[in-house]
């Protein structure tokens, strides 16, 4: 059975689970993993926690494609024109919740989606709350997102489609989403005319193939008068089905809770694995980048620069009379320019070869490492200026490579920092700690 108090072990574990999800910060995420994290945390807080503390009314969410007649069915079930209908689609731009007055405050928001709450005294509202969603296939992306979030927080999904729309792909994605979550689905084929027998049979076959309940409720086509409601006979089967589900609600509440809990825990485990795999993959790619940069420094052609610095014709200008100082300065400046140009050219070539960093601007990278490069050049020129002897050229070659290795390492860290915005903000636990906390609460909650 589901726990009956807010301080039950199940409730405490669910609170810990939601907190661990909040701490989960996917490294370098493009938004998809973060959105999934927030969705799952919302289900834990908005669906599982309230039901671990008690038995709220059955939440019945009506969802379906544009023009399927969801709002008309809802209006007909309660006998009042509370949810807007019309000839312009989509007609329901915000979720409309129809609830008994004492439960209205609980539905101002469902899964983070702000709802229009309308209260009523229709008998059916004494056992369930009805939610009319925006059309899931409308051109407004926000409508689809809202509908999906509401489905994630439903006890029962009434999937409403029509003889002309039952095979559309987008609505079927929502059906699969509800099925994966373990949500009970009631399928309604609305606006069925005399020529729709083939659609009815085909829809039932598709439902059975998808593992969904193929016990289809058929609502015949009716001409709507001034009041956008169907006659009682047209919705009799749907009303009976929902009342039967409500009768079973108390008995099946624990089973439904644990079914959804198992589904959510599985999805969180999958998310945790994806985040860890992405982090490990990024770590390996970062190591590979650093290794390739180190190899690049080793392959950089520096021998001619080292030789020219110590054995070239200008060497005689570095000592002796003061009158040669200007010539020496010119030579040193030329040497600096050659090193700088060679390094900058090589960095540009490297970035052009690295498809991973296609969005990184070379000038930004070169600018970020500019001072380090100047320090390396100046330090090396100063060292070889004072050097002498037959082994100076080889030593100069090695020393220049070592100094430029520091510059290339800095370039790599700058590029990786721009590529990977990394986990965590100031004061937050790292990604590994968050994943550990997540794992520690999944197991006991699942048990």
What does this entry look like structurally?
- The protein is an alpha/beta fold and 447 residues long.
- It has two domains: 9-275, 3-Layer(aba) Sandwich (Rossmann fold), CATH 3.40.50; 285-431, no CATH class.
- It is 57% helix and 10% strand.
- The chain contains 13 helices and nine strands.
- It has helices at 9-23, 32-53, 70-78, 141-152, 169-181, 197-209, 236-299, 303-311, 325-353, 362-368, 370-386, 392-419, 431-446; strands spanning 58-63, 96-99, 109-110, 113-114, 116-119, 128-132, 156-162, 184-192, 217-220.
- Strands 5-2-6-1-7-8-9 form a seven-stranded mixed sheet, with helices on both faces. It has a two-stranded antiparallel ribbon with strand order 3-4.
- Helix 1 packs antiparallel against helix 2.
- It is elongated and about 110 Å long.
- Residues 1-6, 84-90, 311-323 and 422-432 have low confidence and may be disordered.
């Amino acid at each position: 059975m589901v726990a009956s108090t807010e301080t039950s072990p199940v409730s405490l574990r669910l609170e810990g689970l939601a907190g661990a999800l909040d701490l989960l910060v996917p490294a370098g995420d493009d938004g998809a993993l973060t959105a999934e994290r927030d969705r799952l945390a919302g289900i834990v807080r908005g669906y599982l926690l309230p039901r671990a503390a008690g038995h709220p009314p059955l939440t019945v969410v009506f969802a379906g494609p544009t023009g399927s007649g969801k709002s008309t069915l809802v209006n007909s079930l309660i006998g009042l024109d509370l949810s807007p209908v019309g000839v312009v689609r989509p007609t329901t731009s915000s979720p409309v919740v129809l609830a008994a007055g004492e439960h209205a405050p609980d539905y101002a928001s469902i899964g983070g989606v702000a709802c229009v709450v309308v209260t009523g005294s229709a008998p059916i509202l004494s056992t369930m709350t009805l939610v009319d969603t925006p059309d899931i296939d409308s051109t407004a992306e926000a409508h689809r997102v809202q509908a999906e979030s509401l489905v994630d927080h439903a006890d029962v999904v009434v999937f409403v489609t029509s003889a002309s729309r039952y095979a559309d792909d987008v609505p079927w994605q929502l059906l699969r989403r509800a099925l994966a979550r373990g949500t009970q689905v009631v399928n309604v084929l609305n606006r069925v005319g005399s020529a729709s027998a083939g659609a009815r049979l085909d829809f039932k076959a598709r439902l059975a193939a998808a593992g969904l309940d193929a016990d289809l409720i058929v609502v015949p086509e009716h001409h709507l008068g001034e009041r956008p409601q169907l006659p009682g006979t047209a919705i009799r089967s749907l009303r009976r089905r929902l009342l039967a589900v409500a009768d079973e609600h108390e008995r099946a509440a624990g089973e439904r809770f644990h079914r959804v809990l198992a589904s959510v825990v599985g999805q969180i485990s999958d998310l945790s694995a994806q985040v860890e795999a992405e982090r490990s993959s990024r770590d390996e790619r970062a190591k590979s980048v650093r290794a390739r940069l180190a190899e690049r420094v080793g392959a950089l052609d520096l021998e001619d620069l080292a030789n020219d610095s110590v054995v070239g014709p200008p060497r005689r200008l570095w000592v002796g009379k003061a009158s040669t100082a200007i010539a020496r300065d010119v030579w040193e400046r030329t040497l600096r320019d050659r090193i700088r140009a060679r390094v900058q050219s090589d960095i540009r070539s490297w970035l052009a070869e690295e498809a991973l960093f296609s969005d990184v601007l070379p000038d930004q990278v070169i600018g970020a490492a500019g001072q380090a490069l100047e320090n390396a050049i100046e330090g090396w020129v100063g060292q070889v200026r004072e050097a002498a002897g037959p082994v100076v050229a080889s030593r100069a070659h090695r020393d220049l490579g070592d100094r430029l290795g520091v510059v290339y390492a800095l370039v790599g860290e700058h590029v990786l920092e721009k590529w990977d915005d990394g986990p965590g903000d100031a004061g937050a636990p790292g990604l590994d700690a968050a994943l550990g906390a997540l794992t520690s609460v999944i197991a006991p909650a699942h048990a």
